[in-house]
Amino acid sequence: MGRVINTNNPGKVRNQLMRTSAELLRHLSQKSDLDDDAKDMAAQLMFCLRDIDDGIEASALSWEKRDYWVKAEQLRQRWVWAGNGSARLESVIRQQAWETLPVVMADLFVHFAEIKITKFTRDASEWKGAYQQFLDELKD
């Protein structure tokens, strides 16, 4: 029997989530008013940042298993913004403080400056229902 190779390594998944997040930020910045679509986008952005943070922690733990403590801690420090951004977005959504969303978005934009978006590759199905999913998560 041959080896099983996982092609969805944490770095690849993180890059996909970063691209999705960058597109969501761009879409959100083009919105003139807060509608259901914008709420879905904000919730999906929160989920993406949460997944990025979880992936960083998984990568750091694998470095620690190999006794690369410093490298693991540097990785965590370099990506601490993802967990913080997710928590800030969750707070905005949970408290319905939508007027603070542009401030949170502005703080996040600097982390996506290197991602050039010439064409949107994610469609609305990517974020549809994310706001309701978050509300359902709160009920559990």
Structure description:
The chain has six helices and no strands. The N and C termini lie far apart (42 Å). The chain has one domain. Helix 1 (10-29) packs antiparallel against helix 2, helix 2 (36-65) packs antiparallel against helix 4 and helix 4 packs antiparallel against helix 5 (101-109). With 140 residues, the protein is mainly alpha-helical. It is 67% helix and 0% strand.
Keywords:
mainly alpha, 140 residues
Brief rundown of the structure:
The chain is an all-alpha fold and 140 residues long. It has helices at 10-29, 36-65, 69-78, 80-94, 101-109, 130-139.
Write the layout of secondary structure elements.
Blueprint: H1 10-29, H2 36-65, H3 69-78, H4 80-94, H5 101-109, H6 130-139
Distance between the termini: 42 Å
- In total, the number of domains comes to 1
Low-confidence stretches: none
Mean pLDDT: 92
Structural category is: mainly alpha
Largest sheet: none
Number of strands: 0
